[in-house]
Amino acid sequence: MMFGVREIEDQQIQRRREWVFLLLAGIFLGSLAMLNILGVSRFIDLSEYVGIQEESRLRFVVAVGVLPYPITFLCTDLISELYGRKRANMLVWVGLILNVWILIVLWFGGWLDAPPTLMSDGTLPLGIDAGDPVAPYDYSFYQIRKLTFGATIASMIAYITAQFVDVHVFHYLKQKTRGKKLWLRNNLSTLTSQMIDSVAVILITHYYAGALPIPEGVDIWSTLLMFILSSYLFKFFFALLDTLPIYFLVKRLRKYLQINDELGF
Prior knowledge:
Blueprint: H1 2-38, E1 43-45, E2 61-63, H2 69-83, H3 85-111, H4 137-176, H5 182-209, H6 220-241, H7 243-257
Antiparallel strand pairs: 1-2
Helix pairs in contact: 1-2, 1-3, 2-3, 2-4, 2-7, 3-4, 4-5, 5-6, 5-7
C-alpha cells in the first residue's frame, strides 16, 4: 500500500515537472515566433524614455521584434538551472526547427495563388492600383513576408550561436562556482550571448536582407552601431532586471518540483 502511495506521488511530481517544462518551452517558442514574424516590421524610438532629447542625433531605437526577446533567455536559464543542459540544448534545437517552419509557411502562403503583379523579390510593386483586388491585403502580406524572411534568416544564424553560447557559459560558470552564484551565471551568460546576437542580427539583416530603415546619405556604420547598441542596451537592462525574478522562480520551482539542488548565492 505504501509503495502504491509513493508511486502515485512520484507520478504527480513527474507530471508537475513536465507541465512546468512545457510552460517554459511554450513561452520561449511563442516569444521566438513573435520575434521573427514581427521582426523589423516596425522600429520604436524609445529615446525620450531614456532621457535623450528630441533634437539629439543619437537615438535609442529598437525593432518591435526585440521586445519579447529577453524572455527567451530567462526561459533557457530557468530550464538550464532546473532541468539541466541537455533539456536546454534540446529547446534551442526545437527553436531552430520552428524558425525553419515559419519560413516554409511564409514561402508556401506566398506561392499559392500568387498575384500576377508579384515581383521577383517576392513583394508587390509600389504604386499598385488601390482598386486592384490584391491590394491592400496581399501587399501587406508580401511586405511582411519579405521582412520576415530576411529577419528570420538573420535570426536563425544569430539565434543558434547566441543560445548555445548562453547555455554553454551558464553551465561553465555553474561548474566553476560549484553550483553557487546563480546571479553571476544568469547575468554573464545572458549578457555575453545577447551581445553576439545583437551584432549578428543587425549586420545580417542589413547586408543580407537590406531591411533596416537607413536613409540615403546617412553614414551606414554609425547608424548600424546605433541599432546594435540600442538593441543590446535594451536586452542588457532586462537581463539585469530578471536577476531577482530568476532567484524567486528557481527557489519556488525547486520546492514545487522537488528538485534537491541547493541554491548558491
